[in-house]
Amino acid sequence: MKKLPIYLNILQIEEYELNRFLAWVKSHPNAEKLSGKKPLIWTTKIKILYWGSMIIWPISLIWPELSITVFTYLLNPIEQIVLLILKHKTRGKINRLKSQGMKVIGISGSFGKTSMKEILYVLLSQKFRTYRSPASFNTVKGIAKAVNLELEDGCQIFICEMGEYKKGDVKEICELVDPDMGIVTGVNEQHGERIGNVENALATVYELADYVVKKNGFIFVNGRSMTKPGFEIYGIGIYKTPLEQNMEGAEMLALKLGLTRAELKSRKLLVRPFKHRLQLKKHGNINIIDDTYNSNPDGFAAAIKYLGSFEKPRIMITPGIIELGKESLRIHQELGKKMIGEVDLLILVGTNERTVNLARRYKGKKMFIEKISEWQKVVNSTKGTILFENDLPDNY
Fold first, then answer.
1. In DSSP terms, which residues pair with 108 in a beta bridge?
2. Residue 55 and residue 36: Cα distance in Å, rounded?
3. How far is residue 316's CA from residue 289's CA, in Å, rounded to a whole number?
4. Which of 44, 78, 103, 169 could bond 164 through an S-S bridge, CB–CB 3.0 to 4.6 Å?
5. Nearest-5° angle of CA 158, CA 160, CA 162?
């Protein structure tokens, strides 16, 4: 039965998408241990799946994936009823707080949502009573839970991060929280494996813009993705890091809410690089750039350029980017080419289509390792700069 907690952990990481869970099981028939990067959280749902599987232990002993699948299907109708009740309660609370003057800011995009949310929180929270949706609570269910448990009377600004895996996701969240204004941080191929293609991502992310424009609200859009009448554009300049680009959009929105340029100037000083997002550290005489939170094509390219501005030797350690779908080969080869002249040593974690295609177009020195923890065995430099780009969860 020791596989049961492992399988439940993977199901949770895959956000209960059975097709992705079963694909993982098929490709990992001998899985006995996970790294624990995202440990299993014993939610009510997980407990039901676990004890349900234990009841039919003869099946779970041989086919734990079968018992998990059966009980997931059985739970679904109950979950939908609970979600309907929760959404109704959430809408009521949002409407009540908005009648007291609360403004809702929506944030959508393929990348940069969390950083934008945190920047806005720093800029706005000293002038307004501000609440931001918690980390990883960017689905309808997660946002509804957060609103009902944490959003308090007297809140003046609610900053809501909106996740997207399929068409309609952002629209459904908009209908739940009724944003008055919003920011679209950008669109690229991230999560293409789930959402299908860039066109689908574009349509889904811009559901926020469509909703806000219909209300005659303010919508701020990263102009590298799309421009339309009614959009206020940011992000078309030259930036050293993605943080600078996000800051520009956040400042524009903050000015609309009544902050002065003098207030912004002082509050910008409080914004620091966020944990695991191009976070610069020192290890003796070596610069360490930690960009392991996650990765996407735009962020990966920006990290390469950032690394290129540092002291040599410049070493990049990466497993590549996941969930790019059909665009994975093209994107990884393009990124490999961008490394030329910016990276002196490329260390690739794992041997797969991602890393092989990065290596194919990169003409400099490169090597493969099996685990990221092995990097110290192959790097003997006492100076220079090391960029850690992306870190993969256990389902990869």
1. 184
2. 26
3. 9
4. 169
5. 165
Q: Please tell me the distance from the alpha carbon of residue 314 to that of residue 5, in angstroms, as a whole number.
A: 40
What tokens were used for 384?
A: 């220079």
| Tokens encoding 176 | 């739940």
Of 358, 361, 364, which Cα lies nearest the Cα of 343? Answer: 364
User: Are the C-beta atoms of residues 110 and 296 closer than 8 Å to each other?
Assistant: yes
What is the residue-wise DSSP string for 152-214?
Answer: -TT--EEEEE---SSTTHHHHHHHHH--SEEEE----STTHHHH-SHHHHHHHHTHHHHHHHH
Q: Say which CATH class 100-268 falls into.
A: alpha beta
Q: How far apart are CA 201 and CA 16, in angstroms?
A: 21
pTM score of the predicted model: 0.82
Q: What backbone torsions phi and psi does residue 280 show, to the nearest 5 degrees?
A: -90, 130
Handedness of CA 337, 343, 344, 350 (dihedral sign): negative
Compute φ and ψ for 326, nearest 5 degrees. Answer: -65, -20
Q: Which fold has domain 279-389?
A: Protein-Tyrosine Phosphatase; Chain A (3.90.190)
Query: pLDDT tens for residues 282-340?
Result: 888 899 999 988 888 988 999 999 999 998 999 999 999 988 888 899 999 999 999 99
- Start-to-end CA distance of the chain, whole Å, equals 22
Task: Give the integer Cα–Cα distance in Å for 220 and 292.
Answer: 27
3-state secondary structure of 51: helix
